């Protein structure tokens, strides 16, 4: 509380940054938070709400009425307006529609426009605010218009001037660094005439997969990209700060998918939702664990005649599961980063098989000796060693195969691959160990 | 090959993009690659080498002599020069020193300067090329200088003008969007006088942790940030394209650490290196698996008198491991994204315990019924149900505790946490199930 007051008093409103305010708010307990959030300048409430982790969102909105929230939304850029309204709908649908009705016509229209897009489409991430000019405008006039828009706070973070035709079709992109060295007394057309090609825009389609757009940003070192619709009409722009968030979100999604966790459910305040989603994956895991147990059940008699097998069998399964997870994680991640292409499939599988075979041989010897010394049965060492080699070999092969196959089938290689893999390593681990024991030892 | 020729012939050299060339090269087999790489315009070889995945690097450099490589390096920006030279050192130290000696004095000096920094320091990621001006310069003159530098290809991707004093100490940052609406006939000082605060630079220290710098970029929606040394002297800048790469690298590192894989070893062409690193984690896993087996060994007699226990015990361990991994992954990731702060520790643990307790109860009932029906022993259902609840509860608690504790100890929460967790869930799973069986069933 004190810290927030100090910050608010020592900064003029133009100097305050939502991220700083959010950082102070995050350190407060629930009671202080409710009081402190009311001190936040009304113009910044929207930005602060979005800068805080998702779970704070309902704490923010319950402290303001629809009128205040509507003002907060009107101060946001279009993509943030959409994000705010969507989070508000999740928390309180009635309040959301009340807030929406209080917005002015333009904001309503823009939010509706962005809402059309799916969350994997580029359009869902764009800002509608762009700085445009016509080819035949004189540079000086364009800059005057720019100065006016800047003063009215209509444009933030501008890095490019987009040149459009009379139908708003995107023709060229001019970086401000180029604009600065143009001849201001001439038209844009005259300025770019000699090197038109270098102003050709690298643009994204609004319906394009956002993952592709992120790849453009990375490969071409971009910090902003115009977005056009199917007629080539400029509809918005995506900026680097969107890309930071998307890269992080995709990585989170991938890690969560590998662990059998749903990213959207986890971000929600609702614990029951996360519990249900996790239960789904645990349920699938239960089925595969039962399958592995059925394999053990086939060898009840073998185990009955040598209890050492029951003691040792989880080691084989555990080592296979771990080695497989190593391969799987590397292949899933490299597929996502585009480091493995379709033509690399064979090379990838070979590499993973070689690595796991080498480690299989290493740990076969280590564990073989341990088992021999532990139970004083030399052949038990041979059995666990052989099954270790078999299981780690399978682990490497399937750790690479499963994600590659899912990718070819058009399924996200991170989803479900861990469960499939551990089914293989459990079944192969238990079966190879117990079957070898049955035929070699007994 | 044909595709590359077509691309090279249809584009003037100023239009060609290294990312496009890299994309075509990636699709080729080894033989075609060696021929095709020689067709790449000499000025672009450095950029193309860096745009390709790491494992192609030695294929690129072995096709050029030291003279050609030295030219390729001289065409790169300073941060890319360092990256190129470091990769070259990894591949061929002799060639690297030969290439280095052929560089001009300025390039040598810049590479040496950047090399001083650790890979977790901001300085290691910066470009040394910056566009600066003094306070008392007239804007018009600054722009003229800028135009000249642009023509000489000395400056790329400029978004800000950095204002420095006579000692090169950073005073202000002026975005090109602000510069564009300045009065060009006045000095910079006169232009910024009325709103000096808004030009105060948000800068990074060269020795600062790069993770902190990435957080600034995300929180403040930046696309470029100046870097200063301990005396406040401007030494370089970090741009959004560096941030994309760093965010991705950190996410990869985290995923790999959770799976017991070393990110640097995996990127290397050397399979033996990756195998060794993976073997280290598999070795640790073997020790914990043996610990779990020792627990099973304590109950040999119990298992001997009821083999159903050997069949069912892996299910309890497997469910615990999975539920624990769910909790662990969520906590590790949210810690990394700054969504969990120190004060949140208790809330986080409570949430994970509640979720796993609910799922524990659910799967206790499900598995209890299955075990009862499978082996026709009602109390066996009770035993597996109780141990399921105990193990999932521990899984949730330790899944949250382990990363939080590692974080407090200053250790990366992703490193080793999976192994510690599965040790807990294996030991608790086997022990609770077999001990309950011993006292309830026998």
UniProtKB/TrEMBL annotation, chains A, B:
Gene3D superfamilies: CBS-domain (3.10.580.10), MgtE N-terminal domain-like (1.25.60.10), SLC41 divalent cation transporters, integral membrane domain (1.10.357.20)
Transmembrane segments: 279-300, 306-332, 353-375, 381-406, 418-441
GO molecular function, one term: metal ion binding
InterPro entries per the UniProt record, alphabetical: CBS_dom, CBS_dom_sf, Mg_transptr_MgtE_intracell_dom, MgtE_N_sf, MgtE_transporter, SLC41_membr_dom, SLC41_membr_dom_sf
This protein's UniProt keywords: CBS domain, Cell membrane, Magnesium, Membrane, Metal-binding, Transmembrane, Transmembrane helix, Transport
Domain CBS: 197-253
Subcellular location: Cell membrane; Membrane
This protein's GO CC annotations: plasma membrane
Main location: membrane
Lipid bilayer topology: Multi-pass membrane protein
SUPFAM superfamilies linked to this entry: CBS-domain pair, MgtE membrane domain-like, MgtE N-terminal domain-like
Functional note: Acts as a magnesium transporter.
Family the UniProt entry places it in: Belongs to the SLC41A transporter family.
Record's subunit section: Homodimer.
The protein, known as: Magnesium transporter MgtE
Originating organism: Sulfurimonas sediminis
């Amino acid at each position: 509380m004190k810290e927030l007051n100090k910050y608010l008093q020592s900064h003029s409103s133009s100097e305050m940054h939502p991220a700083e305010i959010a950082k102070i708010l995050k350190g407060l307990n629930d009671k202080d938070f409710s009081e402190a959030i009311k001190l936040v300048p009304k113009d910044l409430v929207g930005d602060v709400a979005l800068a805080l982790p998702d779970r704070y969102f309902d704490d923010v909105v319950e402290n303001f009425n629809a009128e205040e929230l509507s003002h907060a939304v009107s101060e946001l850029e279009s993509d943030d307006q959409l994000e705010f309204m969507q989070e508000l709908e999740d928390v309180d649908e009635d309040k959301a529609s009340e807030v929406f009705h209080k917005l002015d016509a333009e904001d309503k229209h823009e939010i509706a426009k962005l809402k059309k897009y799916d969350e994997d489409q580029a359009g869902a991430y764009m800002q509608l605010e762009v700085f445009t000019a016509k080819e035949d405008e004189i540079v000086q006039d364009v800059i005057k218009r720019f100065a006016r828009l800047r003063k009215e706070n209509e444009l933030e973070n501008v890095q490019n001037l987009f040149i459009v035709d009379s139908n708003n079709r995107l023709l060229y992109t001019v970086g401000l660094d180029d604009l600065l060295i143009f001849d201001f007394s001439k038209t844009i057309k005259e300025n770019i005439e000699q090197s038109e090609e270098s102003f050709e825009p690298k643009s994204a389609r609004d319906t394009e997969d956002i993952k592709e757009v992120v790849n453009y940003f990375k490969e071409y070192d971009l910090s902003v990209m115009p977005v056009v619709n199917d007629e080539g009409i400029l509809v918005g722009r995506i900026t680097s700060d969107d890309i930071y968030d998307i890269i992080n979100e995709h990585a989170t999604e991938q890690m969560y998918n590998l662990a059998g966790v749903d990213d959207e459910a986890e971000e929600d305040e609702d614990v029951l939702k996360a519990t249900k989603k996790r239960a789904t994956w645990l349920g699938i895991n239960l089925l595969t664990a039962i399958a592995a147990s059925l394999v053990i059940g086939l060898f009840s008699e073998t185990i009955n005649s040598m209890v050492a097998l029951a003691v040792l069998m989880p080691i084989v399964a555990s080592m296979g599961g771990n080695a497989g997870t190593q391969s799987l994680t590397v292949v899933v991640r490299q597929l996502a980063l585009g480091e493995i292409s379709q033509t690399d499939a064979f090379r990838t599988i070979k590499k993973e098989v070689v690595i796991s075979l080498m480690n299989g041989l290493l740990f076969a010897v280590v564990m073989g000796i341990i088992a021999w010394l532990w139970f004083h049965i030399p052949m038990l060492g041979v059995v666990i060693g052989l099954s270790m080699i078999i299981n780690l070999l399978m682990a490497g092969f399937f750790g690479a195969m499963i994600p590659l196959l899912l990718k070819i089938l058009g399924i996200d290689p991170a989803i479900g691959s861990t469960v499939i893999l551990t089914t293989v390593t459990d079944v192969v681990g238990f079966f190879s160990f117990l079957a070898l024991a049955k035929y070699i030892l007994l």
